Amino acid sequence: MTRKRSRRNSDSSAFAIALNSHWGVSAAFSALIFGFAYVIAPAYAKSNAILAAMLTGLKPIILLIGGTFALIAIFNFFRQRTSSEITSTAPAHFPRKQTGFISASTEHGAAQITPKIGTQWELTASQTSPTPVVDAASVNNQPDKPAFWSLELLQQIEWKLFENLSAAYYKEMGIRAELTKLGADGGIDIKLFQDDSGAPTAIVQCKAWNSKLVGVKPIREFLGVMSHEKISKGFFMASGAYSDDAKEIAKANRITLINGMMFLAMIKLLSEDAQLRLLNLVTAGDFTTPSCPSCGIKMVRRTGKRGEFWGCQNYPKCRQMLNMKSGT
Fold first, then answer.
1. 10 Å Cβ neighbour count for 105?
2. Using CA atoms, how far apart are residues 45 and 54, in angstroms rounded to an integer?
3. Residue 205 Ramachandran class (φ > 0 left, ψ -120 to 50 alpha, else beta)
């Protein structure tokens, strides 16, 4: 019984090692097993009738084990390739080590994700600057403080904290990052300084958009800002995803698109201490209730003739309102 249990534990460990290792390990195991079953063992069995009989009985089991390792190799190959596609873009734009420089010369594609609750931008007749439209679903229940980073958390963060998180990420990378002031920001949320010239070397636009794709229009507007500011590199960060047309325009104009999945992968490439600092930054208080675009304080939920909306606590001094949009 002891030997039998030991053998089972050994087999289980071999499969566990294969599942958690590079796909080449499983492929090598499979090749060795098939080589033994079809080449080595038959060569010895030719001159030994007992060995030949044993090989005939054990061959199906050996082939089953070899086939299992082959399937694990195929599974790991596609899983690891998919993972590398998500994370390979981030180190190209943002070094794994905190060297303090960013390059926008790599591919600008962004992985597609399923939109979740969050915010989007909408112009109202009474305002000249974009106004976030908040999903009502995001305020029904304030979530508990999370213990680790996830895509769900990233997409729950209100628009102002998303900007703060983005700026803090660059600082963790050793890059000087300055947030623009509240109010009309001229299409720039963050300025990046990567040399000693004192002038920004790149600009960042942040959108906590989860209920719709970031389309062509905001990318073209961002390109216009880059041209006006004479900045050759731009980073567009969204908690959601981008349309194909938006990706094409960005790719042709040195704009790096970073979607929610990519941003999450970039955060997880940081040290554990850095990840914890960013987590504490955004979850120190209420991280889902939107901030007033004019005052920066948390807004309050109110009800008017047309339904619920977010209003500034400084009303009537500040009449800023955010429309509450139900559903996704």
1. 10
2. 9
3. beta
- In this prediction, residues 119-147 reach a mean pLDDT of 49
Name 200's Cβ contacts closer than 8 Å, sequence gap at least 6: 178, 191, 192, 193, 229, 231
What's the rounded Cα separation, in Å, for the pair 1 and 107? 57
* φ and ψ at residue 75, rounded to 5 degrees: -60, -50
Contact criterion met (CB below 8 Å) for 70 and 27: yes
pLDDT at 203 over 90: yes
191: left (phi over 0), alpha (psi -120 to 50) or beta: beta
Closest CA to 225 of 245, 239, 241, 205: 205
Contacting residues for 5 by C-beta, under 8 A, at least 6 apart: none
Q: Which of 2-11, 215-224, 297-306 has the highest mean pLDDT?
A: 215-224
The answer to whether the beta carbons of residues 241 and 112 sit under 8 Å apart is yes
Q: Which two tokens stand for residue 14?
A: 């071999």
CA distances for 133 relative to 49, 182, 188, 239, 260, angstroms = 80, 17, 19, 15, 18
Q: What gap in Å lies between CA 287 and CA 142, rounded to an integer?
A: 8
d(CA 118, CA 137): 8
162, burial (CB in 10 Å: exposed 0-12, middle 13-18, buried 19+): buried
Stated pTM of the model: 0.57
Kindly list the distances between the CA atom of residue 208 and the CA atoms of 61, 157, 236, 301, 327, in Å, as whole numbers in the listed order.
54, 8, 11, 19, 16
- Whether CATH 3.40.50.300 fits 119-325: no
